[in-house]
Design a protein that fits this description.
By secondary structure, the protein is of the alpha/beta class. The protein has one domain: 3-Layer(aba) Sandwich (Rossmann fold). Helix content is 41%, strand content 12%. It has nine helices and seven strands; from the N terminus they run ααβαβααβαβαβββαα. The strands form two sheets. A five-stranded parallel sheet has the order 2-1-3-4-5, with helices on both faces. The protein is globular.
């Protein structure tokens, strides 16, 4: 007993090493885009669908994370409670939905949009990147490059989400996402993109903070609300950057 869990952890270790080594240049480019926005007047937004939304949310209003990341939530795709099974997959294929959402989001040319989609093949993630790019927004895509290049895009444009990104960060997920297999199980099991996407996103934050420090800019980072002084510090920093934070109640 215990062989499968060790195989899974070893696979994750291997993929995390690959992410560190093979994404180095992309991390630097993406970090510069983020640091330019924070040091200037740009705003940062992030979006993902269903499970990709849950990974995106790990850098949103997160202790130790950047305050300026504003999550975009699309009705029907923002979490996992939608039912019956399969409805979210159909919603994610709707053309025009992403443009409606962006029309009602305070995003503008010069801002940054992080888009997370493991396959990057459906209409909503494709259009999120495409429409944002066309509007002058800097797009950072988190996707599985092997996965997305092995499937056909479900959009008339004929291109996957990553094609519209300024920088692509590869989470190393392969088609189907799962990495373990056994002759007794008819399908591969234990997906990896949740862990690797979160690692990619926090690595992006780390690179951004380092580049800000190189510019003598104090990064706007949350302190945990449950440590002494955390709430007071956060309130001070939020006040400083209030014009670029959109997840607070109106004053």
């Amino acid at each position: 007993m215990g062989k499968f869990y060790k195989q899974y952890i070893n696979e994750l270790k291997h993929l995390l090493d690959r992410i560190s080594e093979e994404n180095e240049e992309s991390f630097q480019k993406a970090g510069k885009i983020m640091a330019d926005a924070i040091a200037g007047k740009g705003r940062i937004f992030a979006w993902g669908s269903t499970h990709s939304s849950t990974t995106m949310q790990d850098i949103y209003v997160r202790a130790g994370g950047l305050m300026l990341i504003n999550a975009i939530f699309i009705p029907g795709l923002e979490a996992l409670q939608a039912s019956p099974f399969g409805i979210t997959s159909q919603i994610e294929r709707l053309e025009g939905y992403a443009e409606i959402v962006l029309d009602h989001t305070p995003i503008r040319a010069g801002d940054v949009l992080i888009v997370v989609s493991v396959s990057g093949r459906n209409a909503v993630p494709i259009e999120m990147a495409k429409v944002a790019h066309e509007r002058g927004v800097k797009v950072i895509a988190v996707t599985g490059y092997d996965y997305t290049t092995s499937v056909e895009p479900r959009h008339p444009a004929g291109k996957a989400m990553y094609a519209y990104a300024d920088v692509v960060l590869d989470n190393k997920a392969k088609a189907g996402d799962a990495v373990l297999e056994d002759d007794r199980v008819p399908a591969k099991f234990c997906p990896i993109s949740g862990v690797t996407s979160i690692a990619v996103l926090h690595s992006l934050v780390a690179e951004t903070i380092e580049q800000l420090l190189d510019r003598d800019v104090v990064p706007p980072v949350f302190i945990a609300q449950n440590v002494d002084g955390g709430q007071e510090f956060n309130e001070k920093m939020i006040k400083k950057y209030r014009d670029r934070i959109f997840y607070l109640m109106p004053e």
